[in-house]
User: Which sequence fits this backbone?
């Protein structure tokens, strides 16, 4: 009931006006419904009774429950319906696993290790085929293409020497990959890639002093060993490619012979060129052998970082 009015007609007019106002403006207005009604009624009654304009005013609103829910319930008070499956144990377990995987992917160390492992698996096939050129390049034996047993048959001749060099090359690559993986793991574990920090050798030499001595020695030794094995492997592969090329040329089968030989050699030239670029750097400049665009490690891993001043 409105205290300032007695006419039923006036009450109905107010009710309709309030409802119209709510329908048009409630969606954009976050004020409580009581406050909206009070403001409207005060404004309407201000000319009739200025003394009661600042007093609380109440209006009887004969609105059905359905109309109340559809018209005057603020959006902030609408209860969100939670799907039943989100309460299940399976959903919670899957959500937990998903979050763990997401955290791992966003972790720099995990991402770097993933890229290194995937690159090694991809390169494994081309290392074997590109090292054992005499075994995998198509050749002619008599009037037919050489079988696998015929290509690996060892004799004390030029082909036997070539086969021996093929397997020596493969062993050299395996050793290089072992040292390469060991070096990469040390870099990922103790250093970070920080594009916001300098990457010159003097800066890196200074921050390397933050690490414990044994950790620092592992990084430096790994880099030195990798440099030696990379140069040895490059030299061995050059010899292997020359001798294998001579032997394969004598057993020429078709254009496929030369195409396959050149393809395998190019595969390894790409790898060896990348390895040379990684090791042919200034002191204390550590490039990754696997991460794309030769990522340079230029900061201490946060686990080992302390507050220091230069």
Assistant:
């Amino acid at each position: 009931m409105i205290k300032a009015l007695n006419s039923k007609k006036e009450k109905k007019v107010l009710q309709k006006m309030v409802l119209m106002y709510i329908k048009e403006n409630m969606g954009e207005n976050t004020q409580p419904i009581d406050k909206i009604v009070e403001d409207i009624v005060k404004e309407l009654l201000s000319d009739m009774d200025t003394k009661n304009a600042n007093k609380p005013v109440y209006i009887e609103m004969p609105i059905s429950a359905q109309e109340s829910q559809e018209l005057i319930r603020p959006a902030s008070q609408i209860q969100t319906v939670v799907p039943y499956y989100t309460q299940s144990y399976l959903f919670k377990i899957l959500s937990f696993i998903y979050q763990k995987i997401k955290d791992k992917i966003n972790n720099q160390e995990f991402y770097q290790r993933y890229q290194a492992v995937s690159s090694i698996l991809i390169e494994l096939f081309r290392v074997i085929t590109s090292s054992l050129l005499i075994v995998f390049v198509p050749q002619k034996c008599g009037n037919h293409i050489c079988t696998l047993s015929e290509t690996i048959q060892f004799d004390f001749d030029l082909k036997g020497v070539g086969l021996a060099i093929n397997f020596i090359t493969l062993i050299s690559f395996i050793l290089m990959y072992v040292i390469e993986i060991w070096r990469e793991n040390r870099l990922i574990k103790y250093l970070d890639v920080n594009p916001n920090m300098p990457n010159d050798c003097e800066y890196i030499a200074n921050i390397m002093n933050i690490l414990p001595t044994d950790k620092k020695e592992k990084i430096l030794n790994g880099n030195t060993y990798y440099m030696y094995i990379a140069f040895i492997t490059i030299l061995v592969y050059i010899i292997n490619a020359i001798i294998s090329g001579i032997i394969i040329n004598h057993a020429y089968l078709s254009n496929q012979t030369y195409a396959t030989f050149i393809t395998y050699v190019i595969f390894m030239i790409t790898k060896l060129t990348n390895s040379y670029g990684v090791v042919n750097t200034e002191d204390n400049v550590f490039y990754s052998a696997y991460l794309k665009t030769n990522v340079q490690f230029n900061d201490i891993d946060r686990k080992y970082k302390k507050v220091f001043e230069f």
Remarks:
- Residues 1-5, 57-78 have pLDDT under 50 and may be disordered.
